[in-house]
């Protein structure tokens, strides 16, 4: 019987952490891609598409991510589609992220004072020009802390995909525990690796905020 | 044809009618002060002229550009008439120069260098040439309002709408903004201003419009309106008996 050295434990966890990182990136970037059109609709003037988007956001915010993962994994199977854990995890996390990001960013755009819309409109700018040159640059600055905060949620959210058999950091932790019977050491290491992923994210948000505020806080 | 033609304009918010048939023609070069109690509809009237509010009935045109509720017409109208706000509404992420340049480059597609030159000229005109690179929150209220005036002027409008532009300023900063407006008036700019500065209205304006309950209640040359108010409402507003 082969034995697990401490190095074996760490190595296996780190290898699995790659998939946690990759899945987080996929969720964030695909989520962003899905969010952008949703955001346009949400900020636009058509009533019905707006209702659809807010219903979508309500649905995904109002149900546990775990249920969404189950439904993506088992639900699509009912239609005869062979769903891999990868596809189900990527899909569910993308849709889940988009639901939150759309609402977060809508809030940031709406946080820009109404006077900014009026002033830019008075200067003859069209709606897209107002967005591009006046509103978004200001909304972006407001958006950094909640966006980074949510990206940390995404990293931790990927842990749930272990339930549908996706082998990422948490799943690897369980597997290694079963092989080594050292749950405290293994899960302690798992937690440490999550922390090492999330803490720099939070920290970078602070640095970015400070950097973007420089021009406006120097007196 | 007058520069600004306001004909039978009505405006309702829900079931409340705030403008009840306004008629007002403004000739080029006129300086009009709109006075009246809060709630009399004077700010709403101003905001209707450049389409920040939609009108319920009637018509407005500025230098031949009709107020119609679509982006093409609105843009044409807004190029004819600039607006200055009580709260300045400068773009906080841009410098004073950037504020004055933005709409030139974005709306008129003016090349950057040319826009910068115009911006510098306009900032100098309001006495702020040296603040080209300052951000709005590094400027005093009076300076911010003067940048806002320069920003509007850079689009070379035929008329300017001023919505209580000194009301948010500390008393000692009011004079520097009014001095700029006075100069514009002397240069022949058409101005429509909602104001509480009665002395200024008396000195600078060619006509004074007193609004009351959504109507033009009294209108005339400032010396007549202030010295010899005809209606009880205006007398009460001016505090004379």
Explain what you see:
The complex is a heterodimer of chains A (219) and B (241). Chain A is mostly helical. Chain A has one domain (6-216): Orthogonal Bundle (MetI-like fold), CATH 1.10.3720. Chain A has helices spanning 6-43, 47-61, 65-78, 85-110, 114-122, 127-157, 169-180, 183-213. The longest helix of chain A has 38 residues, at 6-43. Chain A is flat and about 75 Å long. Chain B is an alpha/beta fold. Chain B has one domain: Rossmann fold (3-Layer(aba) Sandwich). Chain B contains nine helices and ten strands. In chain B, the strands form two sheets. Chain B has a six-stranded mixed beta sheet, sandwiched between helices. Chain B is globular. Chain B starts with a strand and ends with a helix.
Give the percentage of residues in beta strands of chain B. Answer: 15-25%
Cα-atom Rg of chain A, whole angstroms? 21 Å
How is the biggest beta sheet of chain A arranged?
none
* Range of strand content of chain A: under 5%
Q: Give the class of chain A from helix and strand content and strand pairing.
A: mainly alpha
How confident is the prediction overall: mean pLDDT of chain A? 90
Quaternary structure annotation:
heterodimer
Order of helix and strand elements from N to C terminus of chain A: HHHHHHHH
Q: CATH topology of chain B, anyone?
A: Rossmann fold
Largest interface: A-B, 23 and 28 residues
Counting helices, strands and paired strands, the structural category of chain B is: alpha/beta
The name of the CATH topology of chain A is: MetI-like fold
Number of strand elements of chain A: 0
The tally of helices of chain A reads: 8
Helix content of chain A: over 70%
SSE arrangement:
The complex is a heterodimer of chains A (about 220) and B (about 240).
Chain A: H1 6-43, H2 47-61, H3 65-78, H4 85-110, H5 114-122, H6 127-157, H7 169-180, H8 183-213
Chain B: E1 4-13, E2 16-26, E3 31-35, H1 42-49, E4 57-62, E5 65-66, H2 71-80, E6 81-84, H3 96-107, H4 112-125, H5 141-153, E7 159-163, H6 171-186, E8 190-194, H7 198-204, E9 207-212, E10 215-220, H8 222-227, H9 232-238
Helix pairs in contact in B: 3-4, 3-5, 4-5, 5-6
């Amino acid at each position: 019987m082969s034995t697990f050295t401490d190095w074996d434990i760490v190595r296996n966890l780190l290898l699995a952490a790659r998939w946690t990182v990759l899945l987080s990136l996929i969720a964030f970037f695909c989520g962003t891609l899905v969010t952008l059109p949703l955001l346009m609709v949400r900020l636009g003037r058509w009533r019905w598409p707006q209702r659809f988007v807010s219903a979508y956001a309500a649905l995904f915010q109002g149900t546990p991510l775990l249920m969404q993962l189950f439904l993506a994994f088992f639900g699509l199977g009912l239609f005869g589609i062979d769903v891999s854990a990868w596809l189900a995890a990527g899909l569910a996390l993308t849709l889940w992220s988009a639901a939150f990001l759309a609402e977060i960013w809508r809030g940031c755009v709406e946080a820009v004072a109404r006077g900014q819309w009026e002033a830019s409109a008075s200067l003859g700018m069209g709606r897209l020009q107002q967005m591009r040159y006046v509103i978004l640059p200001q909304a972006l600055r407001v958006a950094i802390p909640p966006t980074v905060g949510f990206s940390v949620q995404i990293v931790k959210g990927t842990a749930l995909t272990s339930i549908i058999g996706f082998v990422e950091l948490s799943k690897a932790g369980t597997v290694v525990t079963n092989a080594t019977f050292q749950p405290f050491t293994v899960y302690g290491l798992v937690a440490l690796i999550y922390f090492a992923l999330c803490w720099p994210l939070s920290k970078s948000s602070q640095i970015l905020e400070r950097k973007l505020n420089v021009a406006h806080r120097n007196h | 044809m007058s520069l600004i033609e306001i004909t039978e304009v009505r405006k309702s918010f829900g079931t409340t009618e705030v403008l009840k048939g306004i008629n007002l023609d403004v000739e080029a070069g006129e300086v009009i002060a709109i006075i009246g109690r809060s709630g009399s509809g004077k700010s709403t009237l101003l905001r209707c002229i450049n389409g920040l509010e939609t009108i319920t009935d009637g018509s407005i045109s500025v230098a031949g550009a009709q107020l119609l509720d679509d982006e093409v017409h609105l843009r044409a109208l807004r190029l004819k008439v600039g607006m200055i706000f009580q709260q300045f509404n400068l773009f906080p992420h841009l410098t004073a120069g950037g504020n004055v340049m933005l709409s030139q480059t974005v709306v008129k597609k003016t090349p950057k260098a040319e826009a910068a030159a115009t911006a510098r000229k306009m900032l100098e005109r309001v006495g702020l040439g040296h603040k080209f690179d300052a951000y709005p929150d590094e400027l005093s209220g009076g300076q911010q309002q003067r940048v806002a005036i320069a920003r509007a002027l850079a689009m070379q409008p035929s008329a300017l709408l001023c919505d209580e532009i000194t009301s948010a300023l500390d008393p000692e900063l009011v004079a520097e903004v009014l001095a700029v407006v006075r100069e514009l008036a002397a240069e022949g700019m058409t101005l429509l201003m909602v104001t509480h500065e009665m002395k200024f209205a008396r000195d600078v304006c060619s006509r004074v419009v007193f609004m009351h309950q959504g109507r033009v209640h009294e209108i005339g040359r400032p010396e007549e309106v202030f010295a010899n108010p005809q209606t009880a409402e205006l007398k009460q507003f001016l505090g004379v008996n």
